[in-house]
Amino acid sequence: MSDNFHHMQQYYSLFRLLSRFREFSRGATASAVVFLLMAFTLGIALGVIGLKLKSS
User: Fold this and answer.
1) 0.90 surpassed by pTM
2) What's the rounded Cα separation, in Å, for the pair 15 and 11?
3) What are the distances in angstroms from CA 50 to CA 10, 28, 55?
4) 34 DSSP assignment
5) Going residue by residue through the chain (56 aa), what tens digit of pLDDT does each one get?
6) 35/41 Cα distance (integer angstroms)
7) Cα-Cα-Cα-Cα dihedral of 11, 14, 19, 25, to 10°?
8) Whole-number Å distance between alpha carbons of 21 and 32
């Protein structure tokens, strides 16, 4: 009986860990998208500046 309870505790902690990880990955995905957009914008800006410096 106590062994079964221990298994239940393990499953419960694993489930909590998974749900926390899912929340974290959702947040990480959102921040990754924001980071990619920022890097993309920065890359375009640097490219434009580089072209202007080359042409001048």
Assistant:
1) no
2) 6
3) 57, 32, 9
4) H
5) 678 888 899 999 999 999 999 998 988 899 999 999 999 999 999 999 999 999 88
6) 10
7) -150
8) 16
